[in-house]
Amino acid sequence: MLKHVPMMLWMAWTSLKRDKVVLMLTFALPIAFFSIFVGIFGSQVTGGGGMSKIKVALVNLDASPNAQRFVDALKKEGGLRIITTVGTDQPHTLSREDAENMVKDGDAGVGLVIPEGFGKDFPNFAFGGDGGDGGAKAVEILADKQRDPVAPQVVAGLMQKAAMMGAPDLMMENGLGQFEKYAGALTPEQRAAIDQWLPQLREEVRENAAATQPTTQSSTASGSDAGSAFEGLVKVNVVNVQQDHKSDWEAFVSFQVAQTAVMFLLFSMAGAAGSLLDEQENGTLERILSSNLGMGGLLMGKWFVIAAIGIVQLAVMFLWAWKPFGLPLFTAHHLGGWAIMSIATAAAGAGFGMVLATACRSRGQLGGVSTIVILIMSAVGGSMFPRFMMSEGLKKAGLATFNAWALDGYQKVFYDNLPLWNLWPQVSVLLGLTIAFMLMARLLARRWEAM
Amino acid sequence: MAMETVLSVADARKRFAANTALDGAAMSLRKGEWLALLGPNGAGKTTLIRAVAGRVILDGGTIDLLGQTISNGQASGAAAVEARRNLGIVPQDLALYPLLTAAENMMAFGALHGVPKAELKDRVRWALEWTGLNDRAKSLCKTFSGGMKRRLNIACGILHRPKVVLLDEPTVGVDPQSRERIWAMLAQLRDEGASLLLTTHQLDEAQQICDRITIIDRGKTIADGTIDQLVAKTLGKGRRVTVSFEPPLPAGAAVPAGMTLNDDRRSVTGSIQDVANELPALLARLSTAGAKVEDVHLERPTLHAVFIALTGRELRE
Questions:
Q1: How far is the alpha carbon of B4 from chain A, nearest alpha carbon, in Å?
Q2: Which residues does chain B have within 8 Å of residue A286's beta carbon, measured at their own beta carbons?
Q3: Backbone angles phi, psi at B61, to 5 degrees
Q4: Which end of chain A lies in a sparser environment, N or C, as judged by fewer CB atoms within 10 Å?
Q5: Is A306 within 8 Å of A353 (Cβ atoms)?
Q6: A119-144 average pLDDT score
Q7: B168, β-bridge pairs
């Protein structure tokens, strides 16, 4: 019964190795996806140890040396990338407003505001957690908790660690102060011994700081971030900068619908553009090109039809997100933004489909190639995982994909609620891509022209 | 009076990489004429038709359509595009949209070929009648039989009333009944004034139906004329003769010169040029050899014989 298996194996392998697309789907695509997944989730597992750092817009309003030491300790944290200035030509020190805007725009994971007077009681050994006992002033963490609920917690934890590692001498001084406050004064001998040891401790801190780059653990945060101050070495107050106060559910739906819609738009656009290959195979393309319709007219006609299908598909997706899932679609702002983004996205998506169809030699090849390209673009471009979860490198790579620009645009409309003129970078890129795609498709379609 | 030439190809040359597809091919089609373009596979027929259709740009030579030069080795200009509006092309492939109905396919191709919107419905109605597909006007094309698809394929190429129609194998793969029907459709077109150029592998039908035959081989035109002219040029006035007799010729008996004894030794076949003089002599020689002649079959040379004589190959080789 099994005697024909070797022959069948040989036949299958010979066919497989000659079909480059299937070979790619079988081996290269899983490898590519594995690499992308590791790139995205690896940074979560390692807490940013080398793969992804949380970008922190830091505003230090306290000129005291202690505050500066805290800032220096934060800068040494491997999991954080501290930004203190803004602007490229004439950089200036970040203000609270700058930091808030950076968080709102997604340019920074969180903002940190160190208040004036922070250094006076740093580190904080006040007990009770009510934040109002006259202890250390709280550092504000400016966060967009719906976009990235994890970052503020991680940063809060890392701040505790930075305080511990960067200022043990201050901890001892303040700790003993608290001890004396509640347990009585130290004896002169005890005080003299401590005074003698403290300079030594400071020297050790300096030496350790120079010799070691601390590896980061994900979080030592105590308490919860439930919008209120929590006690620790550094008091923290998490402030949600998302002014819209949309529900977590709406935020989730607005992300999900755009991510899913854009990825499936690409699949359907590639599929629809594949009609060119069907026509090539059954001879209708030859027939059409022998009629009054030239290649330019044919491609433009196809593009227009496919883009229209894309707009309808996006409409269906967003309507579905509206009715059963509660996406706030029917406001002038959202509807207008949806129309602008959907027209630009469908136009570019149709152009992308035309490129794939004109580049491929058969429907089967198109199926394989489009699956590979679209899945990778969707993974890198944010259609499978939010881009804020990705490392800076992947985020930048994402900008080379169609998905990232489309998703950023929809996000500005439905999540950030930005005025529609803010869509100009996304719309410009998508329309530019449309033109580039169509020129490319026109060039590739030359193989079908009279020769 | 010489008939008006509606399509002429002179010295057509085309190479695809190392392969010479056309090597000086020439042909002409006259008004109202039905011309068969024959040649073995790979002879250059389809390239020639595609060049006329504007889908192949010749390396050299000219193509004139209705008095307008539509190809002279360069890409077609606007005048050529205009002239080609009078051209109808029926490809060998069933170039139809399977998910459109018969009427919808006709509407689509009619519109693409420039049939004015106001006339389109009437033309489709006419074409449905012409093809006998009235009953199936609203059926999806993919549900059609091969013969029905062939008819629809032809209709989609002529909705715009072209003066010259190019048909590439219009009856390939259809049963004899459907073929009859297709020839009848084409005859109607010719009666209405269209000139038809067709390629076919059905030599018997080409011989019966076409006014003239052009044979090309290896990119060159090797013969052109009516069937009588081709026979006269290639096989002369000769006739193929088969004489059957009893009893079988004994082994060692002399076979008349120019004749071949068939396997059963009961008949000989050969070619004679002068029937009146050579046939009685042949019968006399057989009689002398002991054969009692039972039947004599004289055959006029067929297009098939002409084709083999000219190309040395069968049509499908």
A1: 25
A2: 55, 91, 93, 95
A3: 95, 175
A4: N
A5: yes
A6: 66
A7: B199
pLDDT in tens, A325-378: 888 889 999 999 999 999 999 999 999 999 999 999 888 889 888 988 998 899
Q: What is the ipTM of this complex?
A: 0.77
- In CATH terms, the fold of domain B237-300 is Alpha-Beta Plaits (3.30.70)
Whether the CB-CB separation of B205 and B280 falls below 8 Å is answered with no
- CA-to-CA dists, residue A79 to A50, A158, A206, B234, B307, angstroms: 7, 8, 21, 92, 85
Roughly how many angstroms between the first and final C-alpha of chain B, as a whole number?
39
pLDDT in tens, B113-125: 989 999 999 999 9
Unique residue bearing structure tokens 């067929």: B302
pTM: 0.70
Q: How confident is the model at residue B166 (pLDDT cuts 50, 70, 90)?
A: very high
Order the strands of the B259-261 sheet from edge to edge: B259-261, B267-272, B239-246, B292-299
CB B293 within 8 A of CB B283: yes
Three-class secondary structure of residue A363 per DSSP: helix
Distance from CA of B56 to the nearest CA of A (A): 5
Query: What are the structure tokens assigned to B301, written together?
Result: 């040379």
- Compare CB distances from B93 to A283, A289, A293 and report the shortest one's residue: A283
Query: Can B5-233 and B237-300 be said to share one CATH topology?
Result: no
Omega of the bond prior to A123 within 30 degrees of 0, cis? yes
* Domain boundaries of chain B, sorted by first residue: 5-233, 237-300
Nearest Cα of chain A lies from the Cα of B187 at a distance, in angstroms, of 23
CATH topology assigned to domain B5-233: Rossmann fold (3.40.50)
How is A278-325 classified by DSSP, letter by letter?
HHHHHSHHHHHHTTT--HHHHHHHHHHHHHHHHHHHHHHHHHHHHTTT
Identify which of A386, A380, A382, A388 has the alpha carbon closest to the alpha carbon of residue A110: A388
